[in-house]
Amino acid sequence: MSNIDLNLIGIFLLLLVSITIFIMSFAKPKQKADITSRLDKIKKEYDSQKLSNIKSGKDAIKLEFEEFTKRISPIASKTLNKRLEEVYRKKLDQAGKYDVSVIKFVSIRLISAILFPLVFIIFNILFFDLDFITSLTMFSIVAIIGYFYPLVKLNTMIEERKKEIFKSLPDTLDLLTVCLEAGMGINEALVKVVDKSRPSALRDEISRTLQEIQIGNPRLQALKDLAKRIELKELTSVIIAIIQAEKMGNSLSRTLKIQSEIIREIRWQKAQEQAQKAPVKIIIPVALFIFPTIFMVIFGPLVINYLVGN
Fold first, then answer.
1. CA separation for the pair 192, 187 (Å, rounded)
2. What are the distances in angstroms from CA 9 to CA 17, 18, 22, 23, 105?
3. DSSP state letter for 288
4. Distance of CA 141 to CAs 120, 121, 146, 256, Å?
């Protein structure tokens, strides 16, 4: 190889190194910024993954319960008939449990009938140590209690939800009246009530009614379905008044204002009724806890003196 070729190669290598250094001198800050952003991204992904793992750890029991419910659902379906399924579906709707199927609810009852006796067995082994006959009897009783506990809890949820709806009904009617007096239609007024009201069971039911109207269900029928779902006497009377006002062409805002005043009067009467029942209800705890203490304080020293004197 000649000297000219070596010189050309050397010059080419020097140019290549120079160009590389020049490019790297400009690319270095950008590369540093890219590395920093990538590190931040990795850190965020790690934190989100960690949070997800914590959340999944909290929900692990729930997921296992869901899986066990699915496995036991074939057995639960065999215990159902059409009439019983309608009854359970109605109760679940009244409790606001629209996402819970009847099969799942029956499965929960069966699981509860299994878990309650298992807990009793554990407590019996650790603390009670009952004999076989007593243990078998208590096992059967606890299993029955476990089977009916979800149903009792569901009925309690229904009653609490009805009380919540009754409590928020007058304020909701007032807001609906204001919207109607402002010139809105009944559908627009219901949408505004859902947007401006605080989260409540009544708001959820009105939102569900609006969804039914949007998918093509007639408004009056959707309102009737609302009354049928909740089965609250005061709400039913309000919906009947709305239907009659629309059919007769009466002022809907005036009708709702009257209904709001009536419901407030009913609520005041119920509050007075509960206040009048309070003295009667307080007799039992007074007789069980306060009177014995008073008797002990008054007659205790006399009994002690009598016993010591003898």
1. 9
2. 12, 14, 20, 21, 84
3. I
4. 10, 12, 9, 51
Angstrom distance (rounded) from CA 176 to CA 195: 12
Tokens at 97, concatenated: 């449990």
pLDDT per residue over 216-261, tens digit each?
888 888 888 888 888 888 889 889 888 888 888 788 888 888 888 8
Q: How many CA atoms lie within 13 A of 279 on its CB side?
A: 3
The amino acid sitting at 262 is I
Helical segments of the chain, H only: 3-58, 60-78, 82-94, 102-123, 132-181, 186-196, 201-214, 219-230, 233-248, 252-281, 283-285, 291-309
Higher pLDDT, 81 or 130: 81
Q: Is 237 within 8 Å of 227 (Cβ atoms)?
A: no
Q: How far is CA 48 from CA 41, 56, 59, 294, in A?
A: 10, 12, 16, 61
Query: Domain 163-276, CATH 1.20.81 — does that match?
Result: yes
For the chain, the farthest-separated pair of C-alpha atoms sits apart, in whole angstroms, at: 138
Mind spelling out the 3-state secondary structure of 132-196?
HHHHHHHHHHHHHHHHHHHHHHHHHHHHHHHHHHHHHHHHHHHHHHHHHHCCCCHHHHHHHHHHH
Domain boundaries of the chain, sorted by first residue: 32-71, 72-157, 163-276
State the Cα–Cα distance between residues 169 and 237, nearest whole angstrom.
Answer: 12
Question: How many angstroms from the chain centroid is the CA of residue 77?
Answer: 25
pTM: 0.67
